[in-house]
Amino acid sequence: MAEMFYDDDADLSVIQGRKVAVIGYGSQGHAHALNLRDSGVDVRIGLRDGSTSKEKAENEGLRVVPVADAVKEADVVVILAPDQVQRTLYTEEIEPNLQEGAALVFGHGFNIRYDYIKPKSDSDVLMVAPKGPGHIVRREYVDGRGVPVLLAVEQDASGKAWDLAKSYAKAIGGLRAGGIKTTFTEETETDLFGEQSVLCGGASQLIQYGFETLTEAGYQPEVAYFECLHELKLIVDLMIEGGIAKQRWSISDTAEYGDYVSGPRVIDPHVKENMQAVLKDIQDGTFAKRFIDDQDAGAPEFKAFREKGAQHPIEKTGKELRGLMSWLKDNDTDTDYVEGS
Ligand code: NDP
Ligand code: MG
Ligand code: MG
């Protein structure tokens, strides 16, 4: 059984006694910063000149300073800029300004796991990785709950890095839900695998194929949208509550029988072999190199994929239908994604 941590296992005063710089104020950055502040932690935000997130942070009453200044002031530096910019940000702005013995905190292990960042030997290097999007990390905290977190220590220069990691995780609300002890390697490889094979890549492709199959056979796109996309959330909610078993218990016997007969026909053993190949590319660094090389070249491949995804007919149908569902409009307050950010 994995080692788990809860609120009682952590001492909030450890992080309350430090000066924290959160670098980046995006999905995770805003959630960590606001949750830390509301837990009584001294926080400043480091952003580059002309940052579009500056105003958002200042509207919350947070102090925003240039990255170099935030790093100079702090003895805990939290790196929550996008993974692909962290390497340059670290060598150019963070490392030259880092206090001796300052701790580095990551929200994902990518740059450490693939050696894009090589920390100094006097830094504690730790990870507190929420297992959910930043906007949910903030929403759950405000509602008195939390999103589960993974905790890891890559380098324990002070001998007290675990106390700091647990204290930090408690301050962002993660230990209300529970923290699991892991390593940078395990977090990075499983996170990439999960998002590529199941959660994002796998689910998106499954939905698109389902929608295409129905519409190409002449069924109405609106009906196909409900069957292949909208209802997925309702099914997944049941899985979260009680596993696949509860989902099968709740659906009709017809649906459950169809699940057994057709699930393995659609997702056949080749899919598992494909997943193993994806995992291998993650483990040997092939995926990381492809992502970073493309980003360094101005992200031509990434932009082309994004454009193609946005053109899929399911997006047009979905946009029209969601416009008619008032309860979804109420919930959809984080609309930055419309601009593709
Ligand atoms: P975002 O893309 O949301 O981060 C955007 C923020 O980073 C903005 O404030 C942006 O400022 C700033 N930024 C971008 N480029 C630079 C730069 N060159 N210098 C300084 N600041 C910059 O990131 P995420 O929150 O998605 O990811 C942050 C980390 O958290 C990653 O390691 C990721 O893997 C991890 N993570 C993310 C999750 C998520 O929910 N998104 C889930 C779990 C982990 P500007 O206005 O200047 O562009
Ligand atoms: Mg993930
Ligand atoms: Mg991820």
* Strand-pairing-aware structural class: alpha/beta
- The second-level CATH architecture of the largest domain is 3-Layer(aba) Sandwich
Q: Note the total helix count.
A: 18
What sequence of helices (H) and strands (E) makes up the elements?
A: EHEHEHEHEHEHEHEHHEHHHHHHHHH
Number of domains: 2
Strand adjacency order, main sheet: 1-9-8-7-6-5-2-3-4
Number of beta strands:
9
Radius of gyration: 22 Å
CATH superfamily of the largest domain: NAD(P)-binding Rossmann-like Domain
Domain KARI N-terminal Rossmann: 2-182
Cofactor: Mg(2+)
Binding site for Mg(2+) 2: 191, 227, 231
Protein name: Ketol-acid reductoisomerase (NADP(+))
Describe this entry's structure for a reader.
There is one protein chain. The protein has about 350 residues and is of the alpha/beta class. The protein folds into two domains: about 5-180, NAD(P)-binding Rossmann-like Domain (Rossmann fold); about 195-330, no CATH class. Helices cover about 60% and strands about 10% of the residues. It contains 18 helices and nine strands. It has helices at about 10-15, 25-40, 55-60, 65-75, 85-95, 110-115, 135-140, 160-170, 175, 185-200, 200-215, 220-250, 255-265, 270-285, 285-295, 300-310, 315-325, 325-330; strands at about 5, 20-25, 40-45, 65, 75-80, 105, 125-130, 150-155, 180. It has a nine-stranded mixed β-sheet. The longest helix has 30 residues, at about 220-250. Mean pLDDT is about 95; it is low at about 335-340. One magnesium ion (MG) binds near residues 108 and 195.
